[in-house]
# Entry
Amino acid sequence: MKIDKTNVKTPLTKSELDLLIRKQMPNDRLDRIRDVFVFCCLAGLAFTDTDHLRREHLSTDEQGTQWIHKPREKTAVMSRIPLLPYPIKLLDKYANDPELQVKGKLLPVPSNQKMNSYIKEIAAICNIGKNLTTHVARHSWATAAQKHNIPISVISAGMGHASERTTQIYMAALENSENRHC
# Structure
């Protein structure tokens, strides 16, 4: 598999993600978009997987850890992702939204085109000088997991990759991208 290094997205740093979480948005539209983007950053789901996330994809284990168990839309490979406290808080925030309940959705996900456009507005508001897109969120999750010494097998399962080799290629591309931007 050949890596297109020009298409590698620059992931968010922890401080940039913290800024996104804390920053007051000027309106409800951007607040909702920021919530979806941050959820993706902290859960590692691709945009379409977040859009198709339903209540039946959530479960709680014997230790009380909440999980996403969802087949990836792209590959049908099962993603197994433990939910951190903040993504749980975001799911709770929208749990009683009548429009989402009618649609059976958990989060207010717009079209990918609108999402990417609005994320750029949010980046400008937060003075984040990166080309933020929905896929940057996935890269941000993978990079954070790697920096916290999460085993490649766990990252691979979370990303729903068919093999660890795919994840290793993905992580190598991210490392090369980081080295170019330091």
